[in-house]
Design brief:
This protein is mostly helical. The protein contains eleven helices and no strands.
Length: about 190
């Protein structure tokens, strides 16, 4: 029955979009900070709508609001805590933890340019790129780490790739990268 189907889809994070939620073809998507501001306003209007809090947490991860995103994700009710987006958000939080005392991107790029085998710099830069939504560039950093030294820090290149695959939603990109990873490992 339709009611059960809607409930099943909702449990798996698939909910029908409201007419007001769809973006018109001539509208450009919001930049991450503007998206955060819009979501904050929506939450102020509907404070009991937990889906908006999850959306806000994911938007905060894109602008560096890691602590607030962690608080929002940890406070999600059980039905949303297992949502694919919440799981990906938690994985992004674990990546963000790696950047706690990381140097800025420019410094990491300079270190990589000076020494292409600086795997620590490559890892931190890959994490920065991943959190910024530049998934393909992040995977390139992790794949290069694997090519140079697969045993670096007890298999960090392989672990970073696998964790990134769990975070990235582009299945084609993940599939291509998995094949490249397999060719480097075997």
């Amino acid at each position: 029955p339709e009611g059960q189907l809607r409930e099943f889809l909702a449990q798996h994070g698939v909910v029908p979009a409201d007419v007001g939620d769809t973006i018109a073809e001539d509208e450009a998507p919001l930049d991450p900070q503007a998206q955060v501001d819009v979501l904050r306003a929506q939450i102020a209007a509907e404070p009991d709508k937990d889906e908006l809090k999850l959306d806000l947490a994911l938007a905060l991860l894109q602008v560096g609001g890691v602590d607030e995103a962690a608080t929002l994700i940890d406070a999600l009710p059980a039905n949303l805590a297992t949502d694919d987006r919440a799981v990906r958000g938690r994985a992004r939080l674990s990546f963000a933890a790696a950047l706690k005392d990381a140097p800025p991107a420019e410094e990491l790029d300079a270190r990589i340019a000076a020494d292409g085998k600086d795997l620590q710099a490559r890892h931190l830069r890959g994490v920065q790129l991943l959190l910024a939504g530049e998934d393909e560039a992040a995977l390139e950093q992790f794949l290069e780490m694997l090519r140079i030294d697969r045993s670096f820090q007890e298999g960090l290149p392989r672990k970073a790739l696998i964790d990134a695959f769990n975070v990235i939603s582009d299945e084609d990109l993940v599939g291509r990268s998995r094949r490249r990873m397999a060719s480097l490992l075997f």
